[in-house]
């Protein structure tokens, strides 16, 4: 069969964010929209790299995914790609794509997901390109993709190519006289095989299935992609009953729910855990890279604490017994809990902008083992993406080794390292102009010479500004510079207020407000975070004039 060239023209707004291009489904369905962006990926990579290459393709099962797989397959064939590895029915979690790219030495991968954003015909869709190390494309690549979208005049496709992705197997085609191979792979096997090398499944099975003292868990996939992975690991490998896996059948609209594993959108799991029946609960997002951990009676583990606990107990995980812990890292808005572990345990610590791609260079340079983001993302150098199911297995390994409850683990951790009280307020779908005005005003404030030393008081609490800036990061490996990554106000006692505009929304603006305060005195560790942080939140809202400028009197989500 022969390829053909279709005339097209640039479409505005195809700039990838921190995790690829995300828009509503109806936008991706517009004429040439998806084809333009996919062609721009291949054009940015370059013919020399694309020709004969192997690429991984898959996604989280959301609406429009199968149509996008078909378009990508035809465009890839026409652009000279040698082989595609596609998950059965198009299904591959984001961590699985990273795993497969690395295992099979692929040139890269195209992931079809909008992560934790809603799905369905009126929901969101997304396309993300990952490079050969398995991680998200760095800005040098995404900028090239964006430039290609602004100058595109045509795209190549193979309109007569039809590939059945419903069953595994290898199929070969001749396109423009060259061999083009499509291998439909089992969506789960490569990832599960790797998890069995990282964790001690025999020890986990004995702990979870102890007939005299069973450890009851529940895993909520929120009708996202993790469902098949969770049932394979927890039920087939670890011998647990199938009813511990809930909402584990992927649906293209996520059952009409918002597949974001937090206290707001996973409220049903929180209610179940509060009954006290289960000792451990976990929820996952649409594409499987985020997780929420809950203990008995609904005890919530803040994501900033979660990565700190895993780092402090890394010796409980066979993978780190073999590799050691080379260094720790967190995104800038994430609380300083991980920093406390690094300082006390003598480990190198990195603070990077939001976006998993910033961890990749450190990992590839063997300077980083464990990292996390407050947005429920946790991971390690086993792959180059955050990994929700890996984080759950890490926690279960710690519990199996320590023989303590989640609450006991957390309280012991705070007594040793101190507690960082942390919260995040999300204001979603804010008027973009109002959000930009707020950020501009704040930027002018923190850049004032007299801002440092200014005092802010709320009730009986006073805070003196030690630093105000727009966070800038120079990559220690490639020396690239990322600017304007979030406005920071740091006080003399170490408390922090941070404002950012999120790059993961599909429409409008999402304002994120982060508040972080450290408390060493164990007498205060049991106080509710909302109570401890109330003065700082009030100061943040007063400084930013967020409510006046946006008209929002309360956030969409509080974490």
Provide an overview of this structure.
The chain is α/β, with parallel strands linked by helices. The chain is 34% helix and 26% strand. Helix 4 links the parallel strand 3 and strand 4 (83-91). The strands form six sheets. The protein has a seven-stranded mixed β-sheet, with helices on both faces. A seven-stranded antiparallel β-sheet has the order 20-21-24-25-26-19-27. A five-stranded mixed β-sheet has the order 11-10-12-13-14, sandwiched between helices. It contains 20 helices and 27 strands. The chain folds into three domains: 4-187, Alpha-D-Glucose-1,6-Bisphosphate, subunit A, domain 3 (Alpha-D-Glucose-1,6-Bisphosphate, Chain A, domain 3), CATH 3.40.120.10; 190-417, Alpha-D-Glucose-1,6-Bisphosphate, subunit A, domain 3 (Alpha-D-Glucose-1,6-Bisphosphate, Chain A, domain 3, 3-Layer(aba) Sandwich), CATH 3.40.120; 420-558, Alpha-D-phosphohexomutase, C-terminal domain (TATA-Binding Protein, 2-Layer Sandwich).
- CATH third-level topology of the largest domain: Alpha-D-Glucose-1,6-Bisphosphate, Chain A, domain 3
| Helix run count | 20
The CATH architecture of the largest domain can be given as 3-Layer(aba) Sandwich
Number of β-strand runs: 27
At the fourth level of CATH, the homologous superfamily of the largest domain is: Alpha-D-Glucose-1,6-Bisphosphate, subunit A, domain 3
Oligomer: single chain
Count of domains: 3
| Category by helix and strand content | alpha/beta
Major β-sheet strand ordering: 2-6-5-3-4-9-8
Query: What is the straight-line distance between the termini?
Result: 53 Å
Shape, please?
globular
- Alpha carbon gyration radius: 23 Å
CATH class of the largest domain: Alpha Beta
Percentage of residues in helical conformation = 25-40%
Strand content is: 25-35%
Instruction: Report the sheet with the most strands, covering strand number, pairing sense and barrel closure.
Output: 7 strands, mixed
